[in-house]
């Protein structure tokens, strides 16, 4: 994370509907905040809010929507 100091995005379009996503992101975000608690943690998702298991563990969710893709 030191290399990416200005940013705290921990993932870009992860498979956040996978059954292990909630546990994985809970620990990933905890570790990220332990390294620098002063900044919000985020990730970019293209999953639906109803099915995204990682969203509850970050401070900011960025949504990538590609109309016509993923349909």
Explained architecture:
The protein is 21% helix and 17% strand. It is an alpha/beta fold. A three-stranded parallel β-sheet has the order 1-2-3, with helices on one face. Helix 1 links the parallel strand 1 (9-12) and strand 2. It is globular and about 40 Å long. The termini are far apart. The model has no long low-confidence stretch (mean pLDDT 82).
Salient structural properties:
globular, 3 strands, alpha/beta, 17% strand, three-stranded parallel sheet, 71 residues
Sequence-ordered SSE layout with sheet pairings:
Elements: E1 9-12, H1 21-35, E2 42-45, E3 60-63
Parallel strand pairs: 1-2, 2-3
Brief overview, please?
The protein is α/β, with parallel strands linked by helices. It has one helix at residues 21-35; strands at 9-12, 42-45, 60-63.
Helix run count: 1
What is the structural class? alpha/beta
The biggest sheet, with number of strands, parallel, antiparallel or mixed sense and barrel status, is: 3 strands, parallel
Strand content: 15-25%
**Mean pLDDT, nearest integer?**
82
Alpha carbon gap, first and last residue: 34 Å
Query: Count of DSSP E strands?
Result: 3
- The residue fraction in helices comes out at 10-25%
Q: What gyration radius follows from the Cα positions, in whole Å?
A: 12 Å
Low-pLDDT sequence parts: none
Morphology: globular
Order of helices and strands: EHEE
Oligomeric status of the shown chains?
single chain
Strand ordering within the main sheet: 1-2-3
């Amino acid at each position: 994370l030191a290399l990416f100091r200005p940013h705290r995005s921990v993932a870009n379009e992860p498979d956040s509907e996978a059954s292990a996503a909630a546990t994985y992101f809970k620990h990933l975000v905890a570790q990220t905040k332990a390294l620098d608690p002063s900044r919000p943690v985020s990730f970019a998702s293209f999953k639906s809010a109803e099915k995204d298991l990682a969203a509850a563990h970050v401070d900011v969710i960025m949504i990538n929507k590609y109309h016509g893709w993923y349909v």
